[in-house]
Amino acid sequence: MQANGAGQGQDSELSCLNNSAQNGESSSAGGAHTNVNGLSTTNNGNSVSNNIGIPAASNNAVSSDANSVKKKKRLSQSEEDVIRLIGQHLHDLGLNQTMDLLMQESGCRLEHPSATKFSNHVVEGEWDKAESDLNELKALMHSPSAIVVSPTVLQLRMKFLLLQQKYLEYLEDAKILEALQVLRAELTPLKYNTERIHILSGYLMCSHAEDLRAKAEWEGKGTASRTKLLDKLQTYLPPSVMLPPRRLQTLLRQAVELQRERCLYHNTKLDSGLDSVSLLLDHACSRKQFPCYTQQILTEHCNEVWFCKFSNDGTKLATGSKDTTVIVWHVNTSHQLKLMKTLEGHAYGVSYLAWSPDDTYLIACGPDDCSELWLWNVQTGELRTKMSQSHEDSLTSVAWNPDGKRFVTGGQRGQFYQCDLDGNLLDSWEGVRVQCLWCLGDARTVLASDTHQRIRGYNFEDLTDRNIVQEDHPIMSFTVSKNGRLALLNVATQGVHLWDLHDRVLVRKYQGVTQGFYTIHSCFGGHNEDFIASGSEDHKVYIWHRRSELPIAELTGHTRTVNCVSWNPVVPGLLASASDDGTVRIWGPAPFLDVQDAEGLNECCSMDS
């Protein structure tokens, strides 16, 4: 990295000794060369000891080496950076002799000598010496932020961190008088971060070391806390003086994460560490691992299937049909679905279903002319509540409050109710023609799409409402991401739109789907909800990566309109779709994967579907 600020003019001195090599001198000539953390010292200009048991080279060999150095081209800045990164990694692995040889041969220096001395003093807990080192480092400091901060202020911040560690270590050792001296005579006169000083003074009341470590959220005296302190202190120094800790691992991790983000079919949760991936190959997931293949066709419904929804724990799937039944399916450990219960008795078809937060209850709603709502106990199969406020009502949508004790329901005839589990009316909002509902995680705000082509937020506590989304065409349905930030809308004649609810802006319009005036329900899904799926009037299921407007998969198999899709929230590779053809299809990865497919290495991600 290029340094800036005060350290910029010293890059050649700080990071590499190639200038001396160009003048025909050995890079280690001109006195002793001390490597990082005082690990070793090198030659006096006449001979080189390689520190690994090989006899030192003769004077002739040194002369030959000097001649070869003359012929070496000057290392570029990026080449110097790579050598320093490798050297740091070797040091972290304990391969110090190998690091020494690398620095000697390249003519580079891992850290500025003042930084090396400072690091050693911090790790060894020699606080007075470390504080003295700050005066030498002051000229090399630069502001870590875009706002320019003077080296004096940066030095003050670093000194505060050092004294804070010193103070805590005295407290842990029960050296109360010494700790008080640091607090009163060293920390307080700095007149910096007085709020933190008040907190530190409160630690004097800790009765034992464990209490201190818990309240201070501190690892205790020793290498761990001092290394963590050193990582913080490094942020005030340019990388030409001291490399950020574990910099090579950080860069490699960033590269792997970027490849995963660009992988259109990446749908698994992987360890954030580097041990779970190969650095020798680019990351690439196979389409065969993606839920693009029919695993099951559920045919137990005898009419159009209007809705499907996986439970929150992913172990059950509920499907609602024009045949007036709700079927609850169990998802076994092999991700096969088996009929668990059939809930009967609905006077109309079932067009909407909502699981309670703990999956104990399931609410079923009907089409526009349905004035009733059914609340089922899924485990017992018993009807807990059958709610109907008026025969004039149209209760077509429902959403659970996060507390699991209340729900809201409504329809296009102007009803908008909040009720308890027994169907008792708690609150109502007059004149709102509801198309679809959703309760946000704050347990206060209810989102409702209405006949004015908008989504509004309603607060039942203070009876306020506000406009959040405004479309130019009817919103047939919508769903919200788990974090409550994004909303996915199926808009009549337009398709699927993604909105940011916080910024109230349209983020993306997804292409391909056929959306008229039928109610089609789309969903977020996959690992980290990176994907979006929707049914379509052209009998297909469309899947997009959330950041891409073009579909990455078009799933065929249904013979009529696909009304609803649901992605299993626990099993990223399991997707369900419900269709007017009377079937529910379960989609998963390809049934047979070879070893390369299973490791996601056999092909690059592509847009092909």
From TrEMBL:
Protein name as it appears in the record: WD repeat-containing protein 26
Xref: SMART domains: WD40
GO BP annotations, alphabetical order: proteasome-mediated ubiquitin-dependent protein catabolic process
Biased composition (Low complexity): 34-44
Boundaries of every CTLH domain copy: 111-178
The keyword Mitochondrion is annotated on this UniProt entry: yes
Residue span of region Disordered: 1-44
Major place of residence: cytoplasm
Source lineage: Eukaryota, Metazoa, Chordata, Craniata, Vertebrata
Intervals holding WD repeats: 298-339, 343-374, 555-587
Composition bias, Polar residues: 1-29
Annotated gene: WDR26
Keywords: Cytoplasm, Mitochondrion, Repeat, WD repeat
